[in-house]
Amino acid sequence: MSSRTVIRGGLVITASDELHADVLIEDGRIAALAASGTSAAEAWTAERTIDATGRYVIPGGVDAHTHMELPFGGTFASDSFETGTRAAAWGGTTTIIDFAVQSVGRSLREGLDAWNAKADGKCAIDYGFHMIVSDVNQETLKEMDLLVGEGVTSFKQFMAYPGVFYSDDGQILRAMQRSAENGGLIMMHAENGIAIDVLVEQALARGETDPRYHGEVRKALLEAEATHRAIKLAQVAGAPLYVVHVSATEAVAELARARDEGLNVFGETCPQYLFLSTDNLAEPDFEGAKYVCSTPLRPKEHQAALWRGLRTNDLQVVSTDHCPFCFVGQKELGRGDFSKIPNGLPGVENRMDLLHQAVVDGHLSRRRWIEIACATPARMFGLYPKKGTIAPGADADVVIYDPHAEQIMSAETHHMNVDYSAYEGRRTTGRVETVLSRGHVVIDQRKFAGRAGHGRYTPRSTCQYLQ
Q1: Band of residue 197 on the pLDDT scale cut at 50, 70, 90
Q2: How many CB atoms lie within 10 A of CB 35?
Q3: Using an 8 Å Cβ cutoff, are 408 and 385 in contact?
Q4: Which residue among 31, 292, 296, 361 has its CA within the 20 to 30 Å range from the CA of 245?
Q5: Helix axes 169-182, 138-150, angle to 10 degrees
Q6: How far apart are CA 144 and CA 120, in angstroms?
């Protein structure tokens, strides 16, 4: 049975256009757009009509960096694929790309199968996977080729966390050489983890145990150094590089320099680096533990470089690195030793609203908002134009957004499975009203209308900036 929905009277915003248009959805896809009030639009009939007068009609967000149920520091991220994708929908995100983890000594396939099992039948929105490569060897390298063929086209490596996820320069180079051949994209956590561990040990020996020292030992220069080294290794390998969660002025400078040289180097930042700072890490009574993540929050003066990087396209994507741990019972594991605080912040529900606030504040244009939150992540990870835009043939992942509604972010009202909000008490302008995922209404006038299992696994093509 064919099903049709018409969205009438809204301002359609994509990365490239803004137009007052009606949108026709048929069988889960965008069928047509026509200027509002024209005879073409007026002739459309449908089972469901959504009035978007005075609203924005935008593509569903694509969050290319989440960690649902991630094991870390002896515990697990508190959002499951069910709770995390439901919260994402509440925040106007309709696709996530999560990270399957290879354990040292195990195959990539085993890790991917484990994450597929966690997500299967649980997700409220569509999802894909990147692969964390923790153990580079000849078998791993062969598996990378197979995974690219199956639509897992990006591989994350870590220059941090020795003994857990860490890869040395030789392992990184081998993986980059392989990705140069198979079309995959290496995603890099760029921090000098070997040096950081020395600084952690020295800080603890001095009795510096509070959360704020997490930021002080993970120095901006060690993020910049690792970013520089990753760029040079990628250059040697002839491979593209995507640096995740860029937080420091000096690291942005390394990316800008590489891009000025014409290298295929890309950068992502996250809302926490744009809106939070070391002031949060320094909050008293161990409250700073709520803000422990890696790369760490930086002093406020770094924010200007990140905003500038987003405007100049030296940074292309804003993802969340959503990896929530409850304050009670999880973050508290690090009382008396900041190095034992699980690293990660909740944010999958807040990203689209925070970036709209950046539009209100004059940091970004409306189209750039959609570009960095929807279109570019979809292109970067081989999902465009199925995801990330409103155009005939695209999946009908559509958000009706009220640009004037005001809200106060709070753990009392959010839908993430975590006992605090990183943005508690923050007033923002703009709010998601209705969300469609492949034409199905999952948020209906601020009520959840979706279900676990609606979301589909979505294989990806290779990075579309390299084709």
Answers
A1: very high
A2: 12
A3: no
A4: 361
A5: 40
A6: 22
pLDDT value, residue 467 = 55
pLDDT at 251 over 80: yes
Distance CA 271, CA 318 (A): 7
pTM of the model: 0.98
**Interatomic CA distance for residues 223 and 296, integer angstroms:** 10
| Region 270-292 average pLDDT | 98
DSSP state letter for 452: T
- pLDDT, one tens digit per residue, over 21-62 is 999 999 999 999 999 999 999 999 999 999 999 999 999 999
Q: What pairing do the DSSP bridges indicate for beta strands 29-35 and 61-66?
A: unpaired
Residue 287: which pLDDT band, with cuts at 50, 70 and 90? very high
Q: Where are the alpha helices (DSSP H) in 337-465?
A: 351-360, 366-370, 376-380
Whether 399 and 435 have beta carbons less than 8 Å apart is answered as: yes
Distance CA 146, CA 150 (A): 6
Buried b (16+ CB within 10 A) or exposed e, 191-228: bbbebbbebbeebbeeeebbbbbbbbbbbbebbbbbbb
Sign of CA dihedral 175, 180, 185, 187: positive
Q: Are strands 154-158 and 126-132 parallel, antiparallel or unpaired?
A: parallel
